[in-house]
Amino acid sequence: MTGRTTPDRSPWLFVPTQAFLQGIPQVMVMTVSAILLKSLGASNDVIGASSLMMLPLSLLFLWGPVVDGISTKRRWILWMGCVMAGLMVVCGLALNYFPHPVVPVILLLGLMGLATGWNDVPNNGFYLLALDAKQQAFFTGFRTASVRLAVILCTGVLVALAGRWGEAETPAAGWASAFYLLAAITILLTAYHAAALPRPDADRPQHVEKGGWRSYYMEALRAFFRLPGAWVVMAFALTYRLGESLLVRMIAPFLMDTPEAGGLGLSTQQLGVMYGTFGMIASTLGGIAGGILLSRVPLRRVMLPFGVLMSGSNVAYVLLAWLQPSGLQTLHLSLFGADITWDINGWAQAAIIFESFCYGFGSAAFFYYLFIYSAQSEYAASTFALAMAFMGLGWSIPAVFSGLLQQAVGYTWLFILTIPASLPGLLAILYLKYPDTSENR
């Protein structure tokens, strides 16, 4: 059911900021956590095992009925904004006052992952209630762009600042300051949303009768498995990102480890620029390019090439780990009369941009397929959430073992193994059923 905004509540006033704020804790848990833990001296097996903190992000399907049945989505958004800000402050305190903060930080980031899962459900639901169908279509791209800005802020600007502040004091102190800054941004945006978010007529709690939640889950599950080729789609969702799951959590450790340990020896600040900024911009451009191509070419014709490109691009990290290129180049940029400089490893930067672009490109087809497949169901939103849950489980569980595998075989062989690990997902593509729509015939 679509709600409406009050006349003085243009979607421009809240949709971009809402998506931006929604993206911040996601990025901190999924991406920045690996950089943070490595800079604190955590071993790779610990960094890999900490991937468990991402499991709540995979289980949005479970939170939906609870959020729907308790209070309004608008209140949930405001409550969770306060919770997120509080957790960020506590993370900063733990970094400042624990002599060995790795374990407390992992626990707190795990709580943030759980809170992020709860936060995503009301945010996504409020978007559907506060905007009509035409507005939803129009603002989809702006919503995605706002999330990408949050990615660049956290993995680029924030990581670089944490590295710079850490050089003046300690790495933990630098990260504590970064968390305090992020908490301030979060609470300010939450306060703004308290005034800016509209009050759609349809945004009210749905009273769930006894046993209703269990019925909801069972009906959604039945709806998923009634769709043609559901078991293949489940296998596809579980395995398509298997190679990536072994790669992503070890990228930051690889780039930051010393050459003697098989890494490239980048500083936290350099990582924020090279991976968190340029890499994420490349991933965004890859997603845009993939979306444009998907709008012009039938999905069944490009699904396999997209997957092969995404998996094959891991060879960039194989070459980096094998060759271990050294040396830094200084880049200069004049902006508003100021000369901005930063140091990068040119070969590493090229590899990061290539792999990130291919990842964004290949992911576009993956998410688009799950969307149009789920749209066939009478429980479309729940079916998509369930498919995303399969994807999240297939990503986070293997990632837990990525650090142990790296310690056993080294970076080069780990990155080599990500390529055959992608084969089950590519094989599943051959058996996918495509919805019988005109754009995919």
What can you see in these coordinates?
The structure is a single chain. Helix 10 (242-256) crosses helix 15 and helix 14 (346-374) packs antiparallel against helix 15 (380-400). A hairpin with a 2-residue loop joins strand 1 and strand 2. The protein has helices at 15-39, 44-49, 60-69, 73-97, 102-130, 133-168, 171-196, 212-226, 230-239, 242-256, 268-294, 299-312, 315-323, 346-374, 380-400, 402-421, 423-429, and strands at 329-335, 338-344. It is built from 17 helices and 2 strands. Helices cover 73% and strands 3% of the residues.
Features:
441 residues, mainly alpha, two-stranded antiparallel sheet, 17 helices
Per-chain topology:
Layout: H1 15-39, H2 44-49, H3 60-69, H4 73-97, H5 102-130, H6 133-168, H7 171-196, H8 212-226, H9 230-239, H10 242-256, H11 268-294, H12 299-312, H13 315-323, E1 329-335, E2 338-344, H14 346-374, H15 380-400, H16 402-421, H17 423-429
Antiparallel strand pairs: 1-2
Helix pairs in contact: 1-5, 1-6, 1-7, 1-10, 3-5, 4-5, 4-7, 6-7, 6-11, 9-15, 9-17, 10-15, 10-16, 11-14, 12-14, 13-14, 13-16, 14-15
